[in-house]
Amino acid sequence: MTDIIQLLPDHVANQIAAGEVVQRPASVVKELLENAIDAGATEIKLIIKDAGKTLVQVIDNGKGMSVTDARLSFERHATSKIKSAEDLFQLNTKGFRGEALASIAAIAHVELKTKRPEDELGTAIEIEGSTVKSQEVSVTPSGTSVAVKNLFFNIPARRNFLKSDTVELRHITDEFHRVALAHPNIAFVFYHNGSDLFNVTSENYRQRVVHIFGTKTNEKLVPVEEETEVLKISGFVGKPEFSKKTKSEQFFFVNQRFIKSPYLNHAINAAFEGLLKDGYHPSYFLNLTVDPKTIDINIHPTKTEIKFDDEHTLYAILRSAVKHSLGQFNIAPILDFEQQSNFNTPYNYKDKTASSPAIEVDSDFNPFSEGANGSRKQSTSFKQAPADSWEGLYVGLESKSNNSESDFSQVTFESDAKNESMFTDSSIETTKTTFQLQQKYIVSTLKSGMLVIDQNRAHQRILYESFLKHITIKEATSQQLLFPLQLHFTPNETKIIDGLKLDLEHTGFVFSELNDKEITITGVPVGVPESEVSIILEQLISDVENEVPDANFSVADLLAKSMAKSLAIKNGQSLNSTEQEHMVNSLFACKEPNVSPTNRPTFITMAVGDIEKKFM
């Protein structure tokens, strides 16, 4: 019987490794930026074309590579970061596996240009699908330039799985944010299709956060500083009133490496307990410094998850540090046992002595003494009504008693309020055809039984079809605001709104100004409260960032769903009979009344036979 196990060829093994390391263009950006940082660069340029599908290029001014190093860097498991297994627990660099460049070269066209400062000439290498096409001497500046072109050119199936340019660019921007925030001492420039998206210089951490997320972010930040033998914490958390529906502004950095940790995220949420509205998430930009021996980075291919030796201690320290900062800057209520100035004696009464209250007593008062006319003597502080005044109450009664029948015949009585019983006669018709159950469901009668409607989902369906109609026919009605509404978002969020501006205007929004610094709105759709505008846009941004399925999605459909979700009547809201009947009639006037915009049922029916079975 022949042997069936054999070694895979190197180019196949590299493609398999690329499946773990390179998932999309953003993965290439992450690996190349981290290599540039490990090379000691102080200035890094990131150049992107067509959301990384055509070109991803990183240029740095680091220490460069020799001819031998440049050629060897594309071999699997070739690295300068570690030499033994013990080095895995003393890591101070980004990449250490030696798989990144080999994996990228297996699925793309790669051009490498590098030169050390002490060398006169550099090296240029071209690789296509793990095959070296050329290697020659080149005149190039000190540092390294890596250009990755035509990603997944030899794996069409993987390329077809890539999302739209908008989605892929968002992932690249997220990776850029993570690297740029972790290294504020390095200058970064980010170009996409020839336009300058980010240009930040070497600066402190607060300036870096403000430059990336907008100038309005500066007033949202609360500094967090704590240093113990186990953990050192530095960075900022956002004020509770500026919390967001998305988790786009949540960053943990451990030893200048971005990580994802649901456990530590729970510690932040515990510190904000009682300060956030339901469905909102706090913002934080926290740097954690720990001993490299106490963490294991080598548990995930993308190195975004870390194993800590003592997570419980880190949880407690992090929660206490954030809670202390919120209390220190009067964000959260705290116990203060210091003396309050409100309890101090006013200055004008400082030297005065307290006086006893005066009591006046009538020494001549005797309740048992009688006056000259037989009546008891009254106190001077009380007045007695004239004794004959009571006789006036009966004046004229004798004359009225004679014609009592005629007088009482004209008396009218107020009608008592009718309190209908639950068990009324079925023959009596009532005008009320609906009622509300638990302020969540609308119950109505049918010929065959009973109808129960979920008011939130039903209203979402009604609004969804209304907004979709306005966007399609482009004839929405707008109401002008008395005062323009100014909103502030991050540059990335502003670009999302700018891309949806035309569709938003078709629904009734009127923009007078839209730039990276602020958004000014002068008109909103009819029926939309001014206070709900920011909530609608935040929900829309959240949906675009998290719920875009692929390149074939409809922007109008997504916009209509997002606005309907934000403006629909919430469960717990009381509706009168007219509103309930209008809800029922409007729902069944829709084209698809059976389901909500998210394909969930809007109502159920119960036949009389089903109800009768409950009593058997």
Keywords:
18 helices, Ribosomal Protein S8, Chain: A, domain 1, Heat Shock Protein 90, 8-stranded mixed β-sheet, 616 residues, Ribosomal Protein S5, domain 2, 3 domains, alpha+beta
Helical content, roughly?
25-40%
N-to-C CA distance: 71 Å
The radius of gyration is 38 Å
How many distinct helices?
18
Q: In CATH's first tier, which class of the largest domain applies?
A: Alpha Beta
Relative strand content: 15-25%
- Strand runs, count: 22
CATH topology of the largest domain: Heat Shock Protein 90
Annotated CATH homologous superfamily of the largest domain: Histidine kinase-like ATPase, C-terminal domain
Largest sheet at a glance?
A: 8 strands, mixed
Give the overall shape, derived from the CA principal axes. Answer: extended
What number of structural domains do the residues give?
3
Spatial arrangement of strands, main beta sheet: 5-4-3-6-2-1-7-8
* CATH architectural grouping of the largest domain: 2-Layer Sandwich
The chain-level structural class is: alpha+beta
Low-pLDDT segments = 377-382, 421-431
> Mean pLDDT score, rounded?
79
